Amino acid sequence: MSIEVRVPTLGESVTEATVATWFKKPGDKVAADEMLCELETDKVTVEVPAPAAGVLGDIVAAEGETVGVDALLATISEGDGAGDAPAPKAEAKAKAPADDAPEADADQQDEPAEDIDVMVPALGESVTEATVSSWFKKPGDKVAADEMLCELETDKVSVEVPSPAAGVLSKVLADEGETVAAGGKLAVISGSGGAVAKPKDAGDKPAAAPSGKDVEDAPSAKKAMAEAGLSRDQVEGTGRDGRIMKEDVQKAVAAASTAAPQPKAETSAAPRQAVPAEDEAREERVKMTRLRQTIARRLKDAQNTAAMLTTYNEADMSEVMTIRDLYKDQFLKKHGVKMGFMSFFVKACVHALHEVPEVNAEIDGTDVVYKNYVHMGVAVGTPSGLVVPVVRDADSMSFHAIEQKIAELGVKARDGKLSMAEMQGGSFTISNGGVYGSLMSSPILNPPQSGILGMHKIQERPVVVNGEIVIRPMMYLALSYDHRVVDGKGAVTFLVRVKEALEDPRRLLMDL
């Protein structure tokens, strides 16, 4: 029976790929899920596994050919095919001395041992790639099942990758700092002991072809080298037999850019000023983490896209502080969590959002999407940067449920354990710069949301109450909003409702 090997789904909007490398040739035995060939798209490299065990039959799409999604690549004949593929074995033995019996035995012993691929796990909705931040093991190390091998960093969270089985880490395919696609291969684990780890690595390097060897480079790599003005000798190929892949050219271009002299900086949008040599020697250059790059990009996108405006007010926090002092011990005893200010602010914002729903809406093309729920984002500062976990359906939660959820999310944020689901879908955000001592600021929108409330430091100030000057604990409030959706009247009304609810929390009970 013949089984077809077809081009897999290549990703959103990607309709074709180039066959870069065949790892097997007709007549070779293949195991189920063993990698047969590698495809190159404009964005990623895709490996095609064998759908079943058997013998590779005809190869329909040769290296260098362009194929569409679901196109036929090859066929596999089911069965062991022991009599069909003697050539590879004969070739291997011809290279070895005739009296080298132990090495031949070692090959036979290695054959039954299955290599297990370590793959990039699912990274979350809309997240397609990650950066390898740390390897906890190196090639040749023994690993236990579920032992942590490496840590990946995405735009939003860090993801630890456990070992899928016990064995030896025989090969690392993505070094620290490299970008990997969701579902891509990170490493290989062998279950047959440490002896196979070294030969695999040692076997890769001699396979690299010298520049004079007749090795066909990937078509996309040829194009990239031509565009970058690089010769083949300037690029180190990591593909089969030293074949140069598109990623190899990109690495060579990046290395050349890093090594380029300072005048190169003149091509950037904001060139760095010349630094005296004695000062440069005392500087430290550190690559931005993916999280920090994403924060920078999203904040700048918010400024460039939204018609962002900020309106201010202030609230007398006397009543909230009085309630906290009266009930904080009972609250902690009954609910097991401290009564903070955040639950009051969440409740006050929910109350105001019901009256001014456009602050809880977002623009989608030429439509405005009004949300009949409140998923409250709560900005949390972590050692890695600002993250915004989401309290879902905050409009249906009690004070203690809000405090419990915020406490839980805060711990996860600081430990880097937030899941993607816990940071997606927010409809409005609260940011508390007051915990750092901020007296006044203009928060930046968290796209695609249309509003964000900035809390600030509580500070005693003289205010006029009933014609008398008194000292009250005051807080400045700032609402940044997208003026494309929210008019000035709506923004001011929202902030006044928040102020009223904080200055007289009984209004929340009465829904006033």
Give an account of the 3D structure.
The protein has 512 residues and is α+β, with helices and mostly antiparallel strands. Among the domains are: 95 residues, OB fold (Dihydrolipoamide Acetyltransferase, E2P) (Beta Barrel), CATH 2.40.50.100; 219 residues, Chloramphenicol acetyltransferase-like domain (Chloramphenicol Acetyltransferase), CATH 3.30.559. 28% of the residues lie in helices and 27% in strands. The chain contains 12 helices and 27 strands. The strands form 7 sheets. Strands 17, 20, 23, 24, 25, 26 and 27 form a 7-stranded mixed sheet that branches. The chain has a 4-stranded antiparallel sheet with strand order 1-8-6-3, with no helix packed on it. A 4-stranded antiparallel sheet has the order 5-4-2-7, with no helix packed on it. α9 packs across α10. It is elongated, with a radius of gyration of 30 Å. The chain starts with a strand and ends with a helix. About 12% of the residues have low confidence.
